[in-house]
Write a structure and sequence with these properties.
With 415 residues, the protein is mainly alpha-helical. The chain is 65% helix and 1% strand. The chain is built from 18 helices and 2 strands.
Length: 415
């Protein structure tokens, strides 16, 4: 594996780079069409959005409010801190430069993650399948800032092995760049009980203070983020697809939409409660909490779970599920007389969701939509169960207390 691992990494990067750059720079979409992602010629659309916003800013507009340089009329939906790069004098003519830098930064971040730990052969091959997926290719084709955030989070995880304070600082920085990395703070559960609370409270406290300071901007970003069912994931995507003319076009009334929203929230609550109940009582807990890659798993799982509940996300945000794969594969290879099917089911759903655009080529739009949304809900339930089942023993004791009290109360009532 000593030679296979770097060779596999190099081949992966070269193929991805050749696919994206031949499309963007030479208008050759022969390779990229194989992934069947929704292309937006001439490529690097999200990098172009940044250039348009910079042009509006140069004209004296706040692109979070008005963005006339964007011919689509869309406001910039990135936190204001990103406007610092406007001082470099960028505009839409720098799209390919910005996009290329973003793609290279992702490759660096993937390299940091790939070489941060000694993954076995099976893990390396499954990671390669994941990084070659349609969701990752969509992020590369758009040159989305998720590529940069993946690198920042990979760096934070790597640095955290030697410096907890610096690692947390980088995580906070990632959360300032875009809110959702805050959900990855559960990586701190690898710390002892004595260290967890100071680190966790400090990090979340700084983030909350930042959110309060930028609340108006945050609400604007949230309200202008597209809420589309296509190539997306989130708790409300399924009913958006039912109502959208590109999918099932059922013409649901306003009251019907409220009813479907309520179903989404109720389902989430039931899944969280069920995963908590069975997770903390799992007979596999002793083995699950000894994982070597738990920090990365908790980071990736936290980001997915938080994003799934909070907002509708384009599929390129699925790239953070890559962080969960080494630990899930490690759990799959646990030796013992008893076997839990949850890691296998969850990993299978992750791969299908990552490759959903490619699968659409064969199944068609609506069947793939049903398959993808089903997998996204399975991932949500599976990651929740694995997260709760693998929490440290001291936290497990806290989480079990409500169930113990309910059990005691039930005994009293039946006496």
């Amino acid at each position: 594996m000593s030679k296979t691992r770097p060779l596999l990494f190099i081949v992966t990067i070269l193929l991805l780079a050749a696919t994206v750059f031949s499309y963007v720079f030479f208008d050759n979409n022969f390779l990229i069409r194989k992934w069947h992602i929704p292309l937006s010629p001439p490529g690097f659309l999200d990098a172009r959005q940044m250039g348009w916003a910079a042009e509006s800013y140069a004209m004296g507009y706040d692109p979070l409010v008005e963005n006339p340089a964007n011919w689509r009329g869309h406001q910039l939906n990135y936190p204001r801190i990103w406007q610092l790069i406007f001082s470099l004098g960028i505009d839409s003519s720098h799209t390919n430069l910005i996009g290329t830098i973003s793609v290279i930064i992702f490759f660096i971040g993937y390299g940091l993650f790939w070489f941060s730990k000694k993954f076995d052969t099976l893990t390396c091959f499954i990671l390669t399948i994941a990084v070659f997926s349609s969701a990752v290719m969509l992020a590369l084709e758009r040159a989305n800032i998720e590529l940069i955030l993946f690198c920042v989070i990979s760096l934070a995880l790597l640095v955290n092995y030697s410096s907890r304070v610096l690692g947390l600082s980088i995580f906070i920085f990632a959360s300032v760049l875009k809110m959702y990395p805050i959900f990855g703070f559960f990586y701190l559960l690898n710390e002892s009980k004595k260290k967890f609370f100071p680190f966790f409270l400090t990090g979340t406290g700084i983030f909350v203070a930042y959110m309060l300071f930028t609340l108006v901007d945050t609400m604007r970003v949230y309200s202008t983020t597209p809420q589309l069912p296509g190539s997306s994931m989130g708790m409300n995507v399924w009913w958006l697809g039912l109502n959208n003319r590109r999918f099932f076009d059922l013409h649901i009334s306003a009251d019907g939409i409220l009813y479907l929203k309520a179903i989404s929230y109720i389902t989430v609550i039931l899944i969280v409660a069920g995963a908590l109940y069975w997770g903390v009582r799992s007979s596999y807990a002793d083995r699950l909490r000894k994982g070597e890659f738990l920090e990365a798993f908790r980071t990736g799982a936290g980001i997915y779970l938080g994003c799934f509940i909070m907002i509708i996300n384009a599929d390129y945000r699925l790239i953070f599920l890559i962080l969960t794969i080494p630990q899930i594969v490690s759990w799959l290879q646990m030796k013992g007389k008893r076997f839990s099917p949850v890691p296998l089911i969850t990993l299978s759903a992750i791969i299908i969701s990552l490759w959903s655009s490619f699968i659409m080529r064969f199944l068609g739009r609506n069947p793939t939509f049903i398959l993808e949304e089903s997998c996204n809900w399975i991932i949500f339930a599976g990651l929740l169960y694995l997260f709760f089942a693998s929490v440290p023993e001291w936290l497990n004791d806290y989480l079990r207390q409500p169930f113990s009290r309910i059990k005691s109360l039930r005994k009293l009532l039946t006496q």
